[in-house]
Every structure is written in C-alpha cells, then in structure tokens.
Amino acid sequence: MAATTMASNNALTRKLWATEDWVNPGQQVVFGHLFSRGSVFVAEEFTGSKARGDQITYDYVGKLTGIPIGEGGTLDGNEEALDIGSFSMAINTTRIGVLNPNDDTIEQKRTLVDFPEKTRKVIPARHFELLDSACFNQLAGFNPTSFTQNGTTWSGVNKLFVQGHNTPVAPSPNRIIRAGAVANDQSLTSSNTMTLDLIDAALEKSATSDQPIKALPDGTLDLYLSPEQIIDLKRDTTGAIQWFNIQLARITGGKKNSIDNTMMDEMVSAGNYGRVNIYEAPRVAYGQRSDTSAVITTVRRAVLVGADALTYASYFGSPLKASALKYFEQLKDYGYYKGLEGRMIYGLKKTVASNSEDIGVIVISTYAASHS
Predict the structure, then answer these.
(1) Residue 17 lies inside a defined structural domain of this protein
(2) Residue 14 pLDDT class (50, 70, 90 cuts)
C-alpha cells in the first residue's frame, strides 16, 4: 500500500513567517521608578540645545558645628567659617546602532520580519538596560576590575557605559552596613543573608547620623533588593522580626499582605516595613572584594534610597521623556542598507560632595547566592 507524503524538504512545501512576533524584554528596568520617586536630581543647567560643557560642579555647604558665644563673651575673632565642599559630574556619549537591509531589498522582501520596527524596539531597550545598571552601580559604589552582567563583560574604560560615564565612589564611612557586622564583602557567609533587622539597623544609622538621608516626597524611603535577597528575606527564620510572620498577621487581620500581593507601584515588591518600601531590582550591584576589587557574585549590595541620591544631566532632557534618546539614520551602499543609531548624551552619578556623606543612600551588603 502506498500513501502520499509531503516531507519537509519537498520543494512544494510552503514556508511561512507568522505575523505574530516576540522581542526579548530583558530583565525588569527600574531606573524610571527611581526618577519618578524623586531619587534622582536632574541638572537643568545641561538641558537644552544651547547648553555647553561636559562637566558640572555643585557646591555643598555643611552645617555649622561651632559652640555659640553667650553673655559676656566676645564673638569677634570666634566666628565660624563656612564648610564648603563640591560635587562634580561628567557627561558623555552612548551610541548604539543597527545596520539592516533597506525596504527595497530582497532580504527585506523575503521575510515578514520588519527590520526597522524591531530595531526601534531593541535600541531603547538596550539604552535603558545600561542606564539601569548605572543607577545601581553608582548607588552601591560598585567598581570592580571587571564583571559580567546580562551576558556582557565590562572592563577598563568600557565600564563607564554601565557607570553613567562617571567612576563610582565607594560608600562613605557611615553609609554602608553588612550582615553579621563583618568588615568587608568577602567576609559575608551563607549565614549573613537579608533580614528585616538590617533595615532597622540602616534606619538607625541614618537617624543617628549628623547628616540623615533625605526622605522621598511622600516621607518614605525605597529599598531595592536583588531577587536572591527578596527570597532570603521571605524565608528568614532567624531575625528578631520576620517578614513571613508580619504577612501572616496581616492575612489573619484581613489586611493587604505581600504574600498575595507582590506588585506595588507597578514593580515586584515585598511590601512595606515601617516607612520603607521594599522592591525587587535584578541589577542591584554585586559585592566587591576590598583587597583586589574583584567582583563577588554571591554577594549583593542592596540600597536604601532617599531623595536626590543620584544626579543626572543630559542635553536631551530627562530619560522619562522621549527626547532623552535621539535617533539618526544613515544610508550605505547606494541606499541598499540603512543604519539606525540611538544616541544619548548624559551623565549619572551618586550625589556626594567632598565634605559630606552620601546624600541619599545607605548600602546594605549581604550574602545572596542563587536558590536554583
């Protein structure tokens, strides 16, 4: 008995491209949330086509600390000088381009994949990914010799593309705590994971500081944890106050809880603790050895963030607006190929003056290995 067949390699088989398509969305991008929450100060001096320069410097005047003069005393000769420091930030260019066959080419005609449409999706996604990394590398003061993130290895001057075009500054002395009170990131072990106790310790450090971090406009602070730290927090059974027990009490009391509700402000969240909003951010910086500056991939530097923790400047405007990214086209080979560039000119840097602590961030460094 014979039966008609139609093998895949038969010349009469029809090959189709579906009209539906997918573009890899990548990991969640958080930097827009930082801007909208008030954690980023925008330097308006750089905004607009008439602005000039590639570096901006701000002054920072510290508080007065001298002992006053009372009755019978002489103030003349016992005055106090202003404590004036400065904060400088550079801006530079990030250019990303894609070259495709143009519309009237056989390559474009033989496929339903719209090259220009896909290019317009992936170029801004890549820019936002780099900006997101820069936010957390700056906030954490993360500057290892080299590191790999999202499949790309960064080293040498190339690191500036994921550092906001400014070399990160290590956390100031009173702006970093580590689980277990260890002295450095390399000393963190599997017993030094994220707990609510560490949030209390960070809040205490800020409140007792002579320069507390500034609250966000709504009076709260935002804590960004890596996915590993979020899981550690949820599974913690050793802390004096435990996340799960709080959530269970909320369920019992009929209140909103973070077991059933994992989204807040359109971001993955573990809820609120006191006046702290706890969010998940995949690009929270890794740990860094104090002796060799090597990356430690089993450690993450979570960041408790307040107002003006970062400063941003760009001729093209705020990254929350389309004008922050400009497109340029170029034809090649008699118009057979069309290149599309997405260009940003900007700078991003943690706000800290020469005479101050970090203005708006406290780093919480913990062991944070993968659970899978």
Answers:
(1) no
(2) low
